[in-house]
Specification:
By secondary structure, the chain is α+β, with helices and mostly antiparallel strands. It has 3 domains: about 110 residues, 2-Layer Sandwich (Alpha-Beta Plaits), CATH 3.30.70.1050; about 100 residues, Chitinase A, domain 3 (Roll); about 160 residues, Orthogonal Bundle (Trigger factor, domain 2), CATH 1.10.3120. α8 packs across α13 and α9 crosses α10. The strands form 3 sheets. Strands 6, 7, 8, 9 and 10 form a 5-stranded antiparallel beta sheet that branches. A 4-stranded antiparallel beta sheet has the order 1-2-4-3. About 50% of the residues lie in helices and about 20% in strands.
Length: about 450
């Protein structure tokens, strides 16, 4: 067997594999001999079928199968030994005139090669790392929300600004008929809110759905329409008031503090706000980290320049999926996924350069911590090491879970690397301003 490579350019190559008769003949002969021993052919005793008949019936199929196996093994071994970093999979060149009656065979494969490039984490323009804080306004709102949530429900006769209104949204044409509870702050305009002030049980308020809510997605929640139907919905709906309630705010006393955080954990309003601030900013940190991860990714893709073997990859995509696609579809698919492919190559370079690895001990510790957090949410604060290890072992016996957790850990390791090495500037921002700036 002989394997040679012709480099077309820095990103494309053709590998030629020459297979001689001596490479496969012994194996084919052995398989056919085994077939002869077990073949059941009418007119012959088992094990006494003439070899010529066995070869005639099975020879070509066995030859093709063994040559293909030999070809794949040789190609994979060659790519490994030559340390070729290929994209996609080798593509066999079509051979319409392949003669399986010949003794020797030649096969050619197209390769798409990964580009050579360097990654510089020190971008010219600094990337903003957001430190999201809970300000006094947010803390006061959270305290009020808690007091409402744990307060006493009081039945009212007319709607006021802070009323909780239970009723039914209806529109016969769109088959909308949904019972719900709503507060006036959900509505976008003051005009809509004024329609409710002073209304009584049994009254019907007619509303236009266009720009009805502060968040258009609330159409899905309160009218129970699909996402597609909610988009651009411009109709009238009737809201029949069935019940009007207000909330008598709960007292900020020790009984409420113990109910929220456990006996004696919080003993004053000041400590309550400190606890809310601490818990909130832990959650905000996750959103800030995700924003940073996204921004660094965008910066790396934008500023790390290299070419890809685009023509090869588009050709490979035509047959790489579950269904064969044509050249135009492959081009469209390539354009959609090019940025992702670029970042995967950049990420791989960073992982190799900085020796980032996810060990089994990392996975086990991560799984244990995840389990502890989940159990704490259900009030189980003192789980034993034996219990945590048992649950972690069950999780890590699932390949899909191991893959998911490994990806989470590697993302965290990359994030830690970015925080250490990238050109960052820290900006403190309130959560409300963060949401307005990036999600409005």
């Amino acid at each position: 067997m002989n394997i040679t490579r012709e480099n077309i350019d820095a990103l494309n190559a053709v590998v030629k594999v020459d297979i001689a008769k001596e490479d496969y003949s012994d194996k084919v002969e052995q398989i056919l001999t085994d077939y002869r021993k077990s073949a059941n052919i009418p007119g012959f005793r088992k094990g006494h079928v003439p070899m010529s008949m066995v070869k005639k019936q099975y020879g070509k199929a066995v030859l093709v199968d063994e040559v293909n196996k030999l070809l794949q093994e040789a190609l994979n071994k060659y790519l490994t030994e030559e340390k070729l970093d290929v994209l996609g999979n080798p593509l066999p060149k079509p051979q319409d005139d392949l003669d399986w009656d010949a003794d020797a065979f030649s096969f050619e494969f197209e390769l798409g090669l990964a580009p050579e490039f360097e990654v510089n984490l020190k971008s010219k323009k600094a990337i903003t790392q957001y430190n999201i804080v809970a300000d006094d306004k947010m803390l006061d709102n959270q305290v009020e929300h808690i007091r409402k949530q744990y307060g006493k429900i009081v039945s009212e006769t007319v709607v006021a600004k802070d009323s909780e209104i239970t009723g039914v949204f209806e529109n016969a044409e769109k088959e909308i008929n949904n019972s719900t509870m709503i507060t006036l702050d959900k509505f976008k305009g003051k005009t809509t809110q004024k329609q409710f002030i002073g209304a009584k049980v049994g009254d019907v308020v007619t509303l236009k759905t266009k720009k009805l809510f502060n968040d258009d997605h609330d159409l899905m929640t309160f009218l129970k329409v699909s996402h597609d139907d909610a988009h651009g919905l411009d109709i009238e709906v009737n809201f029949t008031i069935n019940e009007i309630n207000s909330r008598e705010l709960a007292d900020l006393d020790q009984e409420l503090f113990d109910k929220l955080f456990g006996k004696g954990t919080v003993t004053s309003v000041t400590e309550l706000k400190e606890k809310i601030k601490e818990d909130s900013e832990k959650q905000f940190a996750q959103q800030g980290d995700q924003k940073l991860l996204n921004d660094v990714t965008e910066s790396l893709v934008e500023n790390t320049k290299f070419d890809l073997p685009a023509s090869f990859l588009q050709k490979w995509m035509q047959t790489a999926g579950e269904e064969v696609i044509d050249a135009d579809q492959a081009k469209e698919e390539y354009e959609k996924s090019e940025k992702s492919m670029r970042y995967q190559l950049i990420e791989g370079k960073l992982i190799e350069k900085h020796g980032l690895q996810v060990s089994f001990d990392d996975l086990k510790a991560h799984a244990r911590e995840m389990i502890k957090v989940q159990m704490a949410q259900f009030g189980q604060m003192n789980s034993s090491d034996e219990e945590l290890d048992g649950i972690a072992s069950r999780i890590l016996s699932n390949k899909d879970e191991v893959k998911r957790l490994s990806e989470q850990l590697m993302s965290q390791k990359l994030l830690d690397l970015y925080k250490k090495e990238a050109n960052l500037k820290v900006k403190e921002i309130t959560y409300d301003d963060f949401v307005k700036e990036f999600y409005s």
